[in-house]
Write a structure and sequence with these properties.
By secondary structure, the chain is mainly beta. The protein is about 10% helix and about 40% strand. A hairpin with a 6-residue loop joins strand 8 and strand 9.
């Protein structure tokens, strides 16, 4: 009995792992070379594309299955007629035991969700930006840039996800564009997204200027120095922000907590009251008024009169357990 009790949690854990693996393994994780996208009603003609001649045998394998289902007819052309939804899966033609050709039938979603599933952003005005596909119903997703992809030309260079899909998190992509600073202001970026699983295909588009998706990374609080009854907060852009900083200017917001009443206050200037307990900052492009960066982690501020290290004028210190490096001393 004791042995059984010890094994039961282990068996349950193994079952959960296997179930999770099977769930992740289900669904196409690639785009078939010969995919046929069909509507919900109609007829699809499949032609055995092979150099061989003579009659053939047709076989159907439903998506997510391995069982081969023989189909009637030996002609090289197969008509798949349906009133609602066709049998989705792989259709293949055979000569004896030799597979000559195959096609995957996938339902074209043809919905109008536009680009709501695709979110793109850029950390700077450099040549790369990121996109996130958030719909986890799809198991294979790819992105393409430019007219070759939006017009579905064969020479489109598709980009696959830069990270694997995790349950509930979608797909992440890193893309590069060839825009020069002079072109960026007048040239729209075109992103085409294609997504599919065993049964459904979805295609959508997103166009934008690079400036529309700018969102800097969090800046760096360099130091906080007493100036009379105020603190002067020195802030530097993130290392990823475009240079020179004198041209690619950022504006900052400082949020601080008052020692007097505990209220959170936001300041747009670098000079803030000295009687505060902690602060944090964020940035955005000062010219195009981009999205704000994420806030930095909170930084504690030493109470006036608190002993400090010799020759240190820096009043800010990292919050406990903060991963940020200590602030520079002056």
């Amino acid at each position: 009995m004791m042995s059984l009790m010890l094994q039961t949690p282990l068996l349950s854990w193994i079952f959960v792992v296997l179930w999770t693996f099977l769930q992740l393994a289900h669904g196409l994780t690639f785009f078939p070379d010969n995919a046929v996208f069909v509507a919900k009603a109609g007829t699809v003609s499949l032609t055995c594309d092979s150099a061989t001649t003579g009659n053939v045998n047709w076989v159907f394998i439903p998506h997510g299955d391995v069982q081969k289902i023989p189909l009637k007819g030996t002609e090289r052309r197969l008509e798949v007629a349906y009133e609602d939804t066709p049998e989705l899966g792989e259709y293949s033609c055979w000569s004896g035991e030799t597979k000559l050709w195959s096609a995957h039938l996938v339902l074209d979603a043809q919905d109008t969700r536009a680009d709501s599933m695709l979110n793109c952003w850029a950390k700077s005005y450099n040549c790369s930006f990121n996109c996130h596909w958030g719909d986890t119903d799809y198991t294979a997703v790819r992105l393409g840039l430019g007219k070759d992809c939006s017009e579905n030309r064969k020479n489109c260079s598709w980009i696959t996800s830069s990270s694997q899909q995790h349950p509930g998190q979608g797909f992440m992509f890193e893309l590069s564009n060839s825009l020069t600073p002079s072109m960026e202001e007048t040239t729209r970026i075109e992103v085409t997204a294609e997504a599919m699983n065993d049964y459904i295909f979805h295609r959508t588009y997103k166009t934008f200027f690079l400036r529309d998706i700018i969102r800097p990374e969090s800046p760096k609080i360099v130091q906080c120095q007493e100036v009379g009854h105020q603190l002067n907060v020195s802030i530097e852009p993130a290392a990823s922000w475009s240079k020179p900083h004198s041209y690619f200017k950022l504006e900052h917001e400082i949020e601080y907590v008052s020692r007097h009443n505990g209220k959170n206050i936001i300041s747009e200037t670098h000079l803030i009251p000295r009687e505060i307990s902690k602060l944090r900052v964020r940035s955005r492009d000062a010219v195009v008024r981009s999205k704000w960066s994420e806030w930095t982690p909170w930084r504690h501020v030493r109470k006036p009169g608190t002993p400090k290290k010799r020759n240190s004028k820096n009043k800010c210190k990292p919050q406990r357990h903060n991963k940020d490096p200590p602030l520079e001393q002056n």
